[in-house]
Amino acid sequence: MSTPVGRLTVLYDADCPLCVHLRHWLLGQRQLVPLVLVPAGSREARLRFPDRDHATTLREITVVADRGQVYRGTAAWIVCLWALADHRPRAHWLATPAGQPFARLTVLAAAKWREALKGPGDGPAGTDGPCDDGHCGATGPPG
Predict the structure, then answer these.
(1) DSSP state of 4
(2) Inter-CA distances, 69 with 3, 9, 41, 53, 80, Å
(3) What is the CA angle 2-74-17, rounded to 5?
(4) What is the pLDDT of residues 99-124, one digit of tens each?
(5) pTM above threshold 0.85
């Protein structure tokens, strides 16, 4: 018997404009499974998940279910869509062999865009890009 998911915590990079935009988009959607969005590497993230590798969560989206399941990268994006009323059918398709290549390409494209904004550094804000000061400028809702 499988354990139902009651809540998903999304660890996102709060210094990335794309991540912040997607955070606002997710919060604006009708949710079948509640999403709690927490900045990756933050004090809150470290308190909630003391055993998690927080440096990794800053490099790759991570979703943690209330029952302990952990999703990273492409699987994390798919589970976020699965939590949304209007996107669950798309999430089911993206999880199939036919949809997985599209999901991977989308996540890779987003990662390249994010990398271009943040620069090549390993830290949460990069070191040589437009986010040198630790903030990429996206603090409020898009638009």
Answers:
(1) P
(2) 10, 10, 19, 15, 13
(3) 125
(4) 888 888 888 888 787 777 766 554 44
(5) no
Which tokens go with 65? Answer: 């279910």
Name which of 70, 75, 10 is nearest 36 in CA terms.
10
Q: Measured between alpha carbons, how far is 23 from 129 in angstroms, rounded to an integer?
A: 22
Q: Give every CB contact of residue 5 below 8 A, 6+ residues apart in sequence.
A: 33, 65, 66, 67, 69
For 88-115, give one letter per residue: b (16+ CB within 10 A) or e: eeebeebbeeeeeeebeeebeebeeebe
Residue 83 · residue 98 · CB < 8 Å: no
How much is the average pLDDT of 29-38? 97
CB 134 within 8 A of CB 125: yes
CA distance 71 to 84: 16
**The two structure tokens encoding residue 20:** 């912040």
